[in-house]
Design a protein that fits this description.
Largest sheet of chain B: none
Strand content of chain A: under 5%
Helix content of chain B: over 70%
Distance between the termini of chain B: 45 Å
Oligomer: heterodimer
Number of helices of chain B: 2
Structural class of chain B: mainly alpha
CATH architecture of the largest domain in chain A: Orthogonal Bundle
Strand content of chain B: under 5%
Radius of gyration of chain A: 19 Å
Number of domains of chain A: 2
Helix content of chain A: over 70%
CATH class of the largest domain in chain A: Mainly Alpha
Shape of chain A: flat
Order of helices and strands of chain A: HHHHHHHHHHHHHH
Largest interface: A-B, 20 and 18 residues
Largest sheet of chain A: none
Structural class of chain A: mainly alpha
Chain lengths: 300, 55
């Protein structure tokens, strides 16, 4: 929570404000939100649909900015994050705070007036959850940080669905559960190969606190309910065979990679290739499964 | 590029120029975003009127 490492004498560049919003993370958020909207059994006018996705992106950007505002000291200690605008000294913390709060308020007001109350409330819950529950409360206190905090990243398809239909039913809850259960294997695979970074920064990620063995077992264990959640919409009658078969194939591949990571024992100079492969595949997995959901809804 | 700007020793005149250049680029981006926002609000209003919703 200390101020940034270098003295800031110039006003921050607009590119630094853009970097505060974590654009790469935003792509997955926008994609899952869009898929939730397109998979919903209701039509939304393209202009309103665009506005809803814009609000989801701005809300996610606001949450990312507030996360970087609060974690400037942690980011300065980790290689992966030390070039961000605050730890690199290109922006003062107050600007980041004002930007984050302003963007959050703007996204919520626009969502309420352009779309509906249900989508606004879920968007507000996701921003507040990410900032207060994950960033401020859990991240520095417990190795379960990304398990519970993963809920924040699971809201977008539910918001997209609510934007189209005005309410929330079983299917968006399943999509929420899928991303919620996907988050631990995804982040713990990453944490296994950047463990030293997290340890140096004092973040109690599972590999740092409980060790590699426990983390590997947990990756395997969380994968099982995740693939059940991914497969559930087809037998429950919410989707057709296109989604069902795609989800089954992708889940099978995910399970195979997760099991390989779960049973592996590593030496001191291990290159962590299976963990890196699982991490990359987990991103592809979400894109393909959600993409199949939309294709199934529109073309089946 | 921004790191270079911060780390390079500059005279007061050069520093003032850098600040002005930074403010100018931010103002241009802000103007573009505000323009796009006006267009978006206009489009939303038209759609809501067409759909028979209260704007």
């Amino acid at each position: 929570m200390s101020t940034s490492a270098a003295t800031v004498s110039l006003p921050a560049d607009w590119r630094d404000f853009l970097a505060l919003t974590k654009p790469r993370v935003m792509t997955l958020v926008v994609f899952t939100g869009l898929c939730g909207m397109l998979a919903a059994p209701a039509h939304i006018h393209p202009i309103l649909g665009f506005t809803a996705i814009l609000c989801i992106a701005l809300g996610a950007g606001a949450a990312g900015a507030l996360n970087q505002w609060y974690e400037a000291d942690l980011d300065a200690k980790m290689k992966r994050t030390q070039k961000r605008p605050l730890p690199a000294g290109r922006m003062d913390r107050q600007s980041a705070l004002h930007f984050g709060v302003g963007l959050a308020c703007f996204s919520l007001v626009l969502m309420y007036f352009a779309i509906n109350l249900a989508a606004t409330l879920i968007l507000a819950a996701s921003i507040l959850f990410y900032v207060f529950v994950y960033t401020i409360w859990l991240k520095r206190r417990t190795p379960q940080n990304i398990v519970i905090g993963g809920a924040a990243g699971a809201f977008p398809p539910m918001i997209g669905w609510a934007a189209a239909t005005g309410d929330v039913s079983t299917m968006p809850v399943l999509l929420f559960a899928l991303i919620f259960l996907w988050t631990p294997p995804h982040f713990w695979a990453l944490a296994l190969f950047v463990k030293t970074d997290y340890a140096n920064a004092g973040v109690p990620m599972l590999p740092v606190v409980a060790g590699e063995r426990t983390t590997r077992i947990q990756i395997g264990l969380y994968t099982i309910p995740m693939i059940l959640c991914a497969a559930a919409p087809w037998p429950l009658g919410f989707t057709g065979a296109i989604y069902g078969i795609t989800a089954a194939v992708m889940s099978g591949l995910f399970l195979a990679m997760a099991v390989q990571v779960a049973i592996r024992r590593t030496g001191p100079d291990d290159d962590m290739a299976p963990e890196k492969r699982l991490f990359k595949f987990s991103i592809l997995y979400l894109f393909v499964v959600f993409g199949a959901l939309v294709i199934d809804r529109w073309f089946a | 590029m921004t790191d270079d700007l911060i780390q390079t020793p500059a005279t007061p005149f050069e520093e003032a120029e850098l600040v002005r250049a930074r403010q100018r680029s931010r103002a241009v981006v802000m103007a573009v975003l505000l323009g796009l926002f006006v267009v978006l609000v206009f489009a939303i209003s038209i759609v809501k009127i067409q759909l028979g919703h209260a704007v």
